[in-house]
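A quick word before the example. In earlier lectures we treated sequence and structure as two separate objects. From today on, think of them as two lines of the same record. Here is MotA/TolQ/ExbB proton channel family protein written that way.
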Amino acid sequence: MLAIFQAAGWPIWLLLIASIVATALIIERLLYLRRGKLLPKKLLDEVVQVYRNKQITPDVIDKLEKSSPLGIVLSAALRNVEAPREVMKESIEEAGSGVAHTLERFLTTLGTIATLAPLMGLFGTVVGMIEIFGSQNTAGSNPAALAHGISVALYNTGFGLAIAMPTLVFYRHFRALVDSFIIDMEQQAVKFVDIVHSKRK
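And the structure line, produced from the sequence above:
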């Protein structure tokens, strides 16, 4: 592996750093973006039960808020449970936008790496081509320098694409996952608002 990196020249180290960062972010997002952790199955039922039993206290709301992202959205609804429907929905939307920002953390970086990796590979290719033309002189071409230039060009192109493809797949996957989580949270929060206001009528 070290021999490959040496043959690929200095531009490959930029790609290596990008691949390490992308791998770390992918692992972090895989561990964080789990449905059971972000949207506990029975949480809405528990919140409805707390509301119906009139057990809403500041401690209960704080505990709910710290439990999960869905808990943050539902705790905003509980804080405004006596308010009109519009105020409840507005507080839920504000809490939801904050949760969405947390769920989308690092996705911009991942998308940037997916876009930038082929360009970094292309940059390495250009460096290799410069070395190839630089090896030409009046006495003819230097075979060793020519071979090194070709290695730099091909290895960097290959590594750039090898990094970009899986990174782009994971970026798209995480993007879709976050969107589905946000929609699910909104639906559960609206369901709770409907339960609260149907009971008032």
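Notice the following. Residues 1-135+142-199 form one domain. We will return to this example when we discuss secondary structure assignment.
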